[in-house]
Amino acid sequence: MRPALHAVAARQHGIFTRAQAIRSGYTEREVAALTRPDGQWAVVRLGVYCERSLVTPLDLQSKWLLKDHAAVLSSRRPATASHDSAARLLRIDTLDTSAPASHLTLFGPRGSRTNGGLTRHRDQLPLCVECVDGVVTTSYARTAIDIARWHGYRHGVVAIDAVRRLGVPRSDLEAELERMRQHPHIARAKAALADSDPGAESVLETLGRELVASLDIGDVETQFAVRIVGDRVVWCDIRVGCHFFECEGKLKLVPVSRGGVAEEPPEVVLWKQQARRTDVCAEGFGMSRIVWADCFEPGWERARERLRREYAVTVARFGRTPTPEQLEFAANHPRRRRATLWTPELSAAA
Fold this sequence. Notes:
alpha+beta; 15 helices; disordered C terminus
């Protein structure tokens, strides 16, 4: 790549437009040759390119991020990255969709149109925004609400759990709902917020909580503290009565170097999980395991039957309610996670 175009691409996350290439000294014939299927430039979006050597090693998520940047760059009108695009840029955990796309919101009468993997939304309301690497996106709260409206209740609960986990207060989400009360499908977002819980520490824990709630066996609580042998404190993912439901994903066994969260060898992680389960159950609790396949068909119904049976065994052994001492201990030891997002102190603001 020639120096003039390289400088342009470096300011734009590695991408550039056809017009920028021409202004940098390339001819139309050169651009046509470079963008052939086997050419040195990959087509990110119509009229937007990137060096193929940079695109090839990227995973699917990173390739969509590149498409999101390209959508903003090629927009002829001022546009804000929103919905799935904003979620990717803001690093909000979401469920995969059956029809992935980039999303932009522009000013204008409400409505949406999808073309070539890009959905353009129009809105006349002023937008609360964030700026990520030079790209303007909708705010965390607005993004989660939009995902719930666009993709439905389940996607919405996952996204709203994720932003609350990051530190977005419920009041921000409620304020967005109030501002958007006339928007299409706002009822989906209201239901998702009502059923959200910042105690879910992953997408799997959100889906696991949904699965447990569907059993209709009692009130569902997240991150319940238990004192175990050695006077140690552990927090269990989901509790109903005296029974815990632990959500166990493969990422716990995958090393950080390979995209997981395990800082120890898999056999060590498994051994510690088993020891933890033994110690928790020794305190008068039962425990079930929930994995990703349990949260989707065809595993959903089988998982519900299994979890009901395991819960019934716990009720027969330990009853339906932890001891007053256990409830008091849990109340005095809430799970504390430092919010990723900065939130202002009211005293400082005053």
